[in-house]
Design brief:
Layout (H helix, E strand, L loop, with lengths): L1 H6 L15 H13 L18 E7 L2 E9 L2 E10 L2 E12 L6 H13 L13 E4 L2 E10 L2 E10 L2 E12 L2
Antiparallel strand pairs: 1-2, 2-3, 3-4, 4-8, 5-6, 6-7, 7-8
Amino acid sequence: MIQYGLSIGTPDYQLPNFVDLPIDVLEVFLREANLNTYANENVKKASPLRPGSSDYHFEKDDLTFHDTYFGATKFIGEEIVYRNGKPAWGMNYYGFTLNSKISESLFDAILRPALMSGSGDNIPVRGPKEFISREWRYTFKAEGDLANFTGLEEIHKNDEVVCRLYCHGGFIE
């Protein structure tokens, strides 16, 4: 990304500085954080930080991951990674069901196994590019990298898209 910025004439003082959190360190941490928060049904929620929110929290070494969201079958949320207490990376997301028969518990039962399967060779902000379980198919398509990305997650029952999530994020400076 930095090389591209320089190649199109962006002044170096306007380019991102990843010294505080190298992308390879962030990638490893996010893979672990994702398996130890919402995706893992055995992990308890953290105390909510805002009225009506659901929160998950994970810490390792000098990094902290916090996920907070509102809603169930129509939800909005944010994930932030802190390094030494300073916000360094984040993602916003909005998801919803397209089929009124999809309850929160059914949504969790479909989504969590996909997310627990890991992100594979995808950027580690949601699940793998594809995960199939019986009549359910999970897909996640991302453009960009952890420094700056957008993504689309869908859950299909047979050939019908029943849930969709949009996300975007990157480094915070």
